[in-house]
Specification:
Helix content is 28%, strand content 28%. It is built from twelve helices and 22 strands. The protein has an eight-stranded mixed beta sheet with strand order 5-4-8-2-1-12-15-14, with no helix packed on it. Strands 17-18-19-20 form a four-stranded mixed beta sheet, covered by helices on one side. Strand 6 and strand 7 form a beta hairpin. Helix 8 packs across helix 9 and helix 9 runs antiparallel to helix 12. The radius of gyration is 22 Å and the shape is globular. Bound molecules: tryptophan and zinc ion.
Length: 475
């Protein structure tokens, strides 16, 4: 059941080393500045939120409540025209603040309607409002931009962000790609609501997150509107464009499903997509109510991508998914999307949980038990890549999506289950999704919750499975 996730992880790890040289001097200098943290920045918002894996990711000094994105994409010339309107609140006095945006040309920035100063510095879009913002002030930033978006290359060599396809674009922003197509506070620490208005040539479909609000065609162009009212991390936003077959329905639980499928993938995808309502029902029983109003799938044909993404409310697949992948990406709606990371180091809270959901699905649907999956993995020798680094401390951005995070992360949950028993274990999973719904969680908080729900001291278990190098001994 785990093979495709692991292969995806393996592919991503395999391509990484040759890109390691990308850490150029300016990046290193900026990293030092970022390391100084928000306090040192005075009345300038910092260039990062302080994530040690991505020093420049996100920005300090403000919180974005809402993004209004108006986009036009020409699938022939691959030109994107965008206007982003961010509604935000200053968390400190700000004479200056940053947004993250990589590439593209910025033509005008206003803050509360007045022209603002703007400077580009790598991925930082440095904005100087014409009057300083006071702490607690709500403000509105409007950024007009255009150009040919290019994917972002991550430390592990994978491309993400705006990835052109033969009929549109595959838009997947984890971990850093959001800034390739809109100016953002690009870190999961800052979650916001979104609406999207996307215009594409007639015959193409633009699919984003949340509820489909309608479309209209004029002068050979079709405009699609989408609304994501619940908080979302920037990396989970999409605006995928292509020639798609669209299917819409509402589930028994009132969830609005929108599936968009590349016709070339349709026959392979159909039997798997048909199971979406039953997968969501099964996951809701295990994890608590589905966290969003809308659901669905975007099945694209993007042969160079090599991964799927749990884009909020509507996972995105680079080809027809198998059932395990569908289960995995939809489990992320609870673990990763609704309950978000505060630091990329905690990535196992996303990938370990979504992988364990695959194991549970298999166990409860006539496949191998989770114990069997665990045992098969545990049988791997000490030099196997599975044990290359501990999942709770991957060490750097290049290791975020490696096998230790997915598989040993899931093994950690299995060991927890064995230690506390099924009743407490499923109470913990559900309690986690409920307590941190539409919010964030950290590994320390998870450990605490697991101890509270089980009445057991679990320090040793987590220390061994999450933080200790090498193949753990079984207890
Ligand atoms: N989070 C994705 C999943 O496992 C996979 C993924 C890893 C990914 N790295 C990525 C997606 C980079 C997009 C970009 O479901
Ligand atoms: Zn995943």
């Amino acid at each position: 059941m785990t093979s495709d996730r692991q292969q995806a992880a393996g592919r991503r790890t395999a391509v990484l080393r040759r890109e390691a040289v990308l850490a150029t001097v300016p990046v290193a200098v900026a990293a030092l500045l970022g390391a100084a943290g928000p306090a040192a920045a005075g009345t300038n918002g910092s260039a990062g939120v302080g994530d040690p894996y991505y020093r420049l990711a996100g920005n300090g000094g403000y919180h974005v409540h809402h993004y209004g994105l108006t986009l036009r994409y020409d699938t022939t010339t691959r030109r994107l025209d965008g206007t982003a309107v961010l509604t935000a609140r200053a968390t400190q006095r700000l004479t200056r603040f940053d947004l993250d945006l990589k590439g593209l040309k910025v033509t005008r920035v206003t803050v509360d309607g007045a022209a603002a100063g703007v400077r580009r510095d790598g991925q930082e879009l440095v904005v100087t409002p014409h009057r300083a913002l006071h702490k607690g002030q709500d403000f509105r930033v409007r950024v007009a931009y255009h150009g040919t978006p290019k994917p972002v290359t991550d430390p592990d060599g994978s491309s993400d962000g705006w990835i052109p396809t033969d009929d549109g674009a595959f838009v997947a922003g984890e971990p850093q790609g959001a800034m390739s197509w809109f100016p953002a506070n690009n870190h999961p620490k800052d979650k916001s609501s979104y609406d999207f208005t996307i215009t594409v040539p007639k015959g193409r479909t633009a699919v984003a997150n949340g509820v489909f609000m309608g479309q209209h065609t004029a002068h050979g162009q079709t405009t699609f509107r989408w609304q994501q009212t619940q908080p979302m991390a920037a990396y989970l936003a999409t605006a995928t464009v292509g020639k798609f077959k669209v299917e819409q329905y509402t589930t028994r639980d009132g969830i609005r499903v929108y599936n968009a499928v590349d016709p070339r993938e349709a026959s392979a995808a159909a039997p798997v997509l048909k199971k979406l309502p039953s997968v969501l029902e099964w996951e809701s029983k295990l994890f608590g109510p589905y966290p969003f109003r809308a659901a669905g799938s975007i099945v694209d044909r993007a042969p160079d991508v090599g991964f799927a993404l749990e884009t909020q409310s509507r996972p995105l697949y680079d080809s027809a998914p198998d059932l395990a992948t569908l289960v995995h990406e939809n489990a992320h709606q609870w673990f990763g999307d609704s309950v978000s990371l505060t630091t990329w180091k905690d990535i196992w809270l996303n990938e370990g949980f979504a992988t364990y959901a695959e194991w549970l699905y298999s166990e409860q649907h006539g496949g191998p038990s989770a114990q069997k999956t665990f045992d098969t993995l545990y049988a791997r020798p000490a030099h196997d890549g599975l044990w290359a680094y501990p999942p709770g401390n991957p060490g750097n951005g290049a290791n975020l999506f490696g096998t230790p995070v997915y598989a040993r992360g899931a093994m950690t949950l299995h060991e927890l289950r064995r230690a506390v028993g099924d009743q407490a274990f499923f109470r913990i999973l559900r309690g986690w999704a409920t307590a941190h719904r539409d919010d964030h969680g950290t590994t320390a908080q998870f450990v605490k919750l697991a101890e509270r729900e089980s009445g057991k001291d679990l320090d040793g278990l987590f220390r061994t499975w999450l933080y200790t190098s090498g193949k753990p001994n079984r207890v």
